[in-house]
Amino acid sequence: MGALDPLVLYLAIVNATTLALVALDRRLSGRGGSGEAVSRTALTLLMFAGGALGGVIAIALFDRRTNKRNSAWHAFSVIALLGWSLALVAIYVAPLDPRAVLAAATGRGHTGLLAYLVVASGVTFLVFVVDKLVAIWNGRGHDATRVPEGALLLLSLAGGSPGALLAMLVARHKIRTTAFAVGIPLMLALQVILVAYLLQFGVA
């Protein structure tokens, strides 16, 4: 039997640690409690250090509702998971080949992917702008329902990050919220790499 790959061992340990710390945090702070026994910053750093899968599992088990308190942590856990997934593809499957990507991108047959990305970005842009208008409306004494941050992040994650970033710049919306100000540009960069891999592997 061969030795276990050191990277796989490291990832197993850091993911188990992340999951255990979130479970401990929920236990100590109470299931519905507003406090946190383990710093969200520490958990976020652990996820970027490789514990993203443990973080996403922990969110699914203990912290499913996205709100202002945990939106950055939720967003960064998914971003870190995507980033680590792409890194593992580069290490164990194939490194990104710019020539192959360029050759695939200049070929035909990508209208489905392009149409999807344009529609996803357009819808995300419109939803961000509507939420900004509702925020302005509410600031004038009204009480209209806002779009939940989780929904905005989900639209961005589903391929709408270019539209989200454009809406943030044009409408000046969510530019001071960490999950968006840092998360959306990271999401966009990773989605560009993901699309490049899809082109390289002939999936798109």
Fold and architecture overview:
The longest helix has 29 residues, at 111-139. This protein has eight helices and no strands. It is mostly helical. The chain has helices at 6-29, 40-62, 71-92, 98-106, 111-139, 149-171, 178-181, 183-200. The protein is 75% helix and 0% strand. The protein starts with 5 loop residues before the first helix and ends with a helix.
Question: N- to C-terminal separation?
Answer: 38 Å
| Total of helices | 8
Structural class by helix and strand composition = mainly alpha
- Extended strand count: 0
- Helical content stands at over 70%
Segments where pLDDT lies below 50 for 5+ residues? none
Structural descriptors:
mainly alpha; 75% helix; single chain; 204 residues
Helix/strand layout:
Layout: H1 6-29, H2 40-62, H3 71-92, H4 98-106, H5 111-139, H6 149-171, H7 178-181, H8 183-200
Helix pairs in contact: 1-2, 2-3, 3-8, 4-8, 5-6, 6-8
Brief description of this entry?
With 204 residues, this protein is an all-alpha fold.
